[in-house]
Write a structure and sequence with these properties.
With 383 residues, the chain is an alpha/beta fold. The protein is built from 11 helices and 22 strands. β3, α4 (71-79) and β4 (86-88) form a beta-alpha-beta unit. It binds pyridoxal-5'-phosphate. Residues 41, 43, 89, 170, 210-211, 226-229, 236 line the site of pyridoxal-5'-phosphate (PLP). Pyridoxal-5'-phosphate (PLP) binds at residues 41, 43, 89, 170, 210-211, 226-229, 236.
């Protein structure tokens, strides 16, 4: 395995394929008509891929807006020179208002308290605070209830310090676009938007599609789509696999920090959940663990790639390290590893691949969570 780039101070890292990120961004852009926009969701440090770096690539590849989950994430984008509009996907605390206005980061809003405080401060500063109005249509998470949108707008629209730049909702079941639940959310959203327009309220950019809805249902693209997970080359559900080609962006790799041949019967790791079953088993140590997103629930159940071959992880995964076993079998005669050899935890090596989906299945979670986890402490290299 040839490595183009790796961090100086640690033998475990996340590799980000910039070309794949660029191609995926364009693939979403290609789903759209000329007047429709692409909002790239880069919350949680771009799903663990590194928000400032990813945002730059997305902006260059045609992103019209970026969305984050926290004000701090928005500030990080501005500090790294991002110039496209930035939207926070929920309503922050009132204390965040100065920061929002200073960095021109748009909040989502759904309480009149926030709207009024935001408008008051904007007037004091001699500017106008743009916002997107979140509409609750069925997920029961955030937003103004779909039946209350007119009352809400009547309460806040007189204020000259605020301006509605967009209205949106979020789907709970967009992996099933023929389902009744999805269709009901669509209807409620359509009706809420129509009611506001009929009453003369500015709606700005109308948007609702996350990754699955963007790929599976062109009829709900409206003025903008909000793509997240798909940009990183991960599919949100089985249904999207046949509908768009996406390339995985993140790989996770490590170098062997120690090799040993413990005697038969010796235990490996905390609690000895693995004991060396026979002679001539090589135990290799890799310097990443559950604090790097390699969940401890994977202990003794996952594999890594070494020279394009799957080998077993053995013993309990530690906070910062884990062990794997290289053993010769009659069908597999891979050479023993050496100190410094590269192993692949997620990604391709030769003809073999371990995907985020495989790891998510083993962990009983979704690829989103697996990617976020690896992004938390591992250094990222952009290749
Ligand atoms: C996270 C999020 C998205 C992106 O969802 P994906 O499934 O990753 O595409 C879009 N909109 C909102 C409101 C979100 O919270």
């Amino acid at each position: 395995m040839s490595i183009r780039k790796e961090p100086q101070t640690r033998w475990a890292w996340v590799e980000i394929d910039q070309g794949a990120l660029r191609r995926n961004t364009r693939a979403f852009k290609n789903l759209l008509g000329p007047r429709q926009r692409l909002c790239c969701v880069v919350k949680a440090d771009a799903y663990g891929h590194g928000a400032p770096q990813c945002a730059k690539i997305m902006q260059a590849a045609g992103a019209d807006m970026l969305a984050v989950a926290t004000v701090a994430e928005g500030v990080e984008l501005r500090r790294s020179g991002i110039s496209v509009p930035v939207l926070v996907l929920n309503e922050p605390p009132l204390a965040a208002i100065d920061t929002l206005l200073e960095h021109q980061i748009m909040p989502s809003l759904y309480t009149s308290e926030f709207a009024m405080a935001y408008g008051e401060r904007a007037v004091q500063l001699g500017c106008v605070g743009k916002y997107h109005m979140a509409i609750e249509t069925g997920m029961n998470r955030i937003g103004v209830h779909y039946a209350d949108v007119l009352d809400f707008r009547r309460e806040i629209d007189f204020h000259r310090g605020i301006a509605c730049d967009g209205v949106f909702t979020h789907f709970a079941t967009a992996d099933d676009i023929n389902g009744w639940d999805y269709k009901l959310q669509c209807t409620r959203f359509d009706e809420a938007v129509a009611a506001m327009r009929d009453a003369g309220y500015e709606c700005g950019i109308v948007h609702c599609d996350n990754t699955p809805a963007s790929i599976l249902d062109a009829s709900t693209h409206y003025d903008m789509i909000r793509a997240g997970v798909g940009l990183y080359g991960l599919h949100p559900c089985d249904a999207t696999h046949g509908a768009i080609k996406l390339d995985p962006v993140m790989s996770v790799r490590a170098r062997v920090t120690r090799t040993a041949h413990p005697a038969m019967g010796e235990g490996v790791g905390y609690g000895f959940t693995y004991r060396v079953p026979r002679t001539r088993v090589q135990i290799c140590t890799l310097p990443l663990g559950y604090a790097d997103g390699l969940s401890r629930t994977l202990s003794n159940r996952m594999e890594v790639l070494y020279r394009g071959v799957r080998i077993r992880q053995v013993g309990n995964i530690c906070m910062d390290q884990c062990m794997v076993a290289v053993q010769q079998t009659p069908v597999c005669q891979i050479p023993e590893a050496e100190h410094g050899d590269v192993m692949t935890i997620v990604g391709r090596d030769g003809d073999s691949e371990i995907t985020m989906d495989e790891m998510a299945r083993l962990r009983g979670t979704i690829n989103y969570e697996v990617a976020c986890g690896f992004g938390m402490r591992l250094d990222k290299v952009y290749v």
